[in-house]
Amino acid sequence: MSSLSALRWRTTPIDAIAWREWDGEYVVRSERSGNTHLLGPLAGRVLQVLLDASSALNSDDIAAELSDELAATDAAERKAAIEAALSEFKRLGLAEPVQE
Amino acid sequence: MIVSELSPEELASRLASPGLRLRTGPVVTRIQSRLTSVVQGVALHYAHYAVEGEGSFADFRVRVASPHSLRRWLKPQVYFHFDGASPFLPLPANQAFAMLEWGLNWCVSNHCHQYLIIHAAAVERSGLALLLPGPPGSGKSTLCAGLASRGWRLLCDELTLLDLATGSVVPLPRPISLKNESIDVIRRFAPEARLNPPVHDTVKGSVAHMKAPEQSVIRGAEPARPRWVVLPRFERGATVSLEQQSRARTFMRLAENAFNYDVHGRRGFELLANLIATSDCFECRFSLLEDAVEALDGLARRT
Lengths: 100, 303
Description:
The structure holds two protein chains of two kinds. By secondary structure, chain A is an alpha+beta fold. Chain A has helices at residues 41-52, 59-65, 75-92, and strands at residues 9-11, 17-22, 25-30, 36-39, 95-97.
């Protein structure tokens, strides 16, 4: 298990993020940084799952939420891609791990 | 009153002092210059533009002038003055009118933050605007000049002003800046177009300005709703193609091409997102202007 797997994640406050989706691609603006980012389909869906969640989620929770959409991919690959997206969100100020 | 109603002597006199208050779209600029090339350039390119009264408000006060030194005679140069300051290095005197045009663009792009300003040309047909964002060399101004010569209304060549409340394009019709080979391309494509003699060896190469069509000036207060975003891509030898583009990627291109996207924060994001959501996005590869204009005419016909 990677160190990221144990972490639970939440987005920065929902009103600090503006986003739009067209044909599976996302543009996301962070109020905190003032930057706008282009996200691919997987990263965009991970962000949506976090935005819709009522509590912090770990990568297994997110993978379960996306299981139907990502059924064709290998479970380990799927989890690695989700964790890569979460790390990128942390760098961009879009999401953060919850201190427990 | 419009510029062409002033006699050549009155125009020269007003430009010398106290300055000509010229309306271009929503902007009034008080222009001062005693230079013959500026007077001639204003007379040609701005003949149909409104002149505001001498006591009226001007958004910008600019002056194009020679220095009071030997440089007036030896390799003469000109300066662009803005509210008494000189924001640019001087240029050779034969570039005076081009410098005025570049300076006016600078005034708008640096100060008109009541709009979201995109580095893009824009034209209109049936109330719908086609935006052409693109870097120098992409063919943006050539396409814009071509379309403006074939029934599309010129909204702007360089600076697309988006109204923050409505998302509409606010026209800023001004001369179209043509560079290098584009000058002859437009001369062949639209022999009736009025261009001033090219100025060579500028930082942009050879430059000539094409006069904005009269109708686009007369209708300069009519906004247009964005409907298409077309990324022009001039490619020597290419067959014309219109390829649909991802909306998200086109959004990013517009944001990158905006002068003041960051100034407007979330409002700018929402404005661009709404624009993209209601526009079809394409890349237009072309080498022949005739073919590109025909392809873009086709977009309007299909709507």
